[in-house]
Amino acid sequence: LFCPCLIYGAYIFLPFDAPLLTTVSARLVYTLRCAAFATFPIVLGMIVSGISRLCSSALEPFGELHREVEIHRTYVSQSIHLFILYFFNMAVLATYLPQELLKLIPLLTGLFAISRLIFWMSYAIGRSFRAFGFSMTFLPLLAMLLWNLYGMFVLEPKNLLS
């Protein structure tokens, strides 16, 4: 319930509009540029993971990892997988959205980045707290997937493979 309220509030109250994008290629470039900001938590996680691995007191570098190193490695791995799914769904979503709703693309990108950072913090606190951050990432992804399937099979079934 938190994510739709957050997106709606940001959509109404943030004072920016998406540029006029008339072609599909312009929309995809816009989505690609927005998605570059979603990689910030992943790159930050890679840096912290490298530093924690470097500062680890393990005698064997390829041996069993400490919990602190494992947390960051797992976060980066899961974030990369979710980013790939998120990016492809955003790219498809950008082709179906009307012009007045293209403001959702940077908002969803920001939500992804913030939710991954929240997941990382809560995962470091304890495994039982990570559900909130994961659901903030996964449920918008699921909503985008359902909207994309609805758009492909119901709204424009004749253009499915073209």
Features of this protein?
162 residues; mainly alpha; Four Helix Bundle (Hemerythrin (Met), subunit A); 73% helix; 0% strand; TMM79 protein; transmembrane
Overall description:
With 162 residues, the chain is an all-alpha fold. It has one domain (23-155): Four Helix Bundle (Hemerythrin (Met), subunit A) (Up-down Bundle). The chain has helices spanning 2-13, 24-38, 40-54, 67-96, 104-125, 131-155. α2 runs parallel beside α5 (104-125). The longest helix has 30 residues, at 67-96. The protein is elongated, with a radius of gyration of 18 Å.
Short description:
This protein has 162 residues and is mainly alpha-helical. It has helices spanning 2-13, 24-38, 40-54, 67-96, 104-125, 131-155.
SSE blueprint and pairings:
Layout lengths: L1 H12 L10 H15 L1 H15 L12 H30 L7 H22 L5 H25 L7
Helix pairs in contact: 1-5, 2-4, 2-5, 3-4, 4-5, 4-6, 5-6
Number of DSSP helical runs: 6
Number of domains: 1
Shape call = elongated
Radius of gyration: 18 Å
> Order of SSEs, N→C?
HHHHHH
Largest sheet: none
The CATH architecture comes to Up-down Bundle
Q: Give the structural class.
A: mainly alpha
Percent of residues in beta strands?
under 5%
Number of strands: 0
Measured between the Cα atoms of the first and last residue, the distance is 36 Å
